[in-house]
Amino acid sequence: MKTGLPTALRLGAAAAALVCAAGVQAQAFPAAGKTITLVVPFAAGGPTDKVARDLAEALRKPLNGATVVVDNAAGAGSTIGTAKAFRAAPDGYTLLVTHVGMATTPTLYRNPGYKYEEFEYLGLINEVPMVVVGKPALAANTWAELNTWIGQNKGKVNLGNAGLGSASHLCGLMLQNALKTEMTTVPYKGTAPAMTDLIGGQIDIMCDQTTNTTSQVEGKRIKAFAASTAKRVAIPAVYKDLPTLDEAGLKGFNVSIWHGLYAPKGTPPAVLKTLNDALKVALKDADFIKKEEGLGAVVVNDARVNPADHKKFVAAEVAKWGTVIKAAGQYAD
User: Which segment of the chain is annotated as a signal peptide (predicted)?
Assistant: First the structure.
């Protein structure tokens, strides 16, 4: 006597199992051969671009060797690229790497094309000190001398920045507020042209990220006067004996620029977990840490690598920078 399911039923069940398995395989993330794109809302060669390219390399291994590339979509104070990532398909293959601009845009722009709170938060990447730097021919070599020179040239000091909402713009606002003085602000379309003019002497000073200033200071193409953070910059070979602004007399001055990783709203929870797990591995990658430390950046290793804590941190930054920007009365359309 024959037992078991009829042949037709057994074949049907096998076919259904194959279809199911194929469906599971199709949903695996990242799928073989698919590229993950990190949208950077700033020009190539800038500080955020450098961070994103280092991160792209570190993410490949924990993402099963997936190809991870950077797409620079600069313009309008980072809103063009950020909006591009916001509108991307929520499948995990288009992500956003951006800096503190995520927290300043809500105040700077009435309608940037996205809502910061509607992104899927994946985790904070690093924090970057900033340094007050000056043109090589500046008649000052220490912070005390620079402070005196600024006081003697009120209304004549040209303070450069990389554009509205840029890290250098924000630090410049804080610096003017702390010194209780106004400078002639000179905005550029990116960090590179601003630095070029600082080296050439067309502008006097700038407050910019160590990811951008370190090689220029090391090459003696610009002068460094003070760090913006509570702790000194951990690159003694370049910033030997460089004081913090707090140490130099601007008590409580503490500005660092952070970078975070985001996904479009609606990205599946399983994909978000895979990406967050990969980020945590990448942030412990020895080569990534070495590259970031070489630029003065501190890789995040606290609770802010978790989505919920990352989002809570950004909300607090929105409130903090909103106060500064409103006090300065600087807004975009």
Answer: 1-26
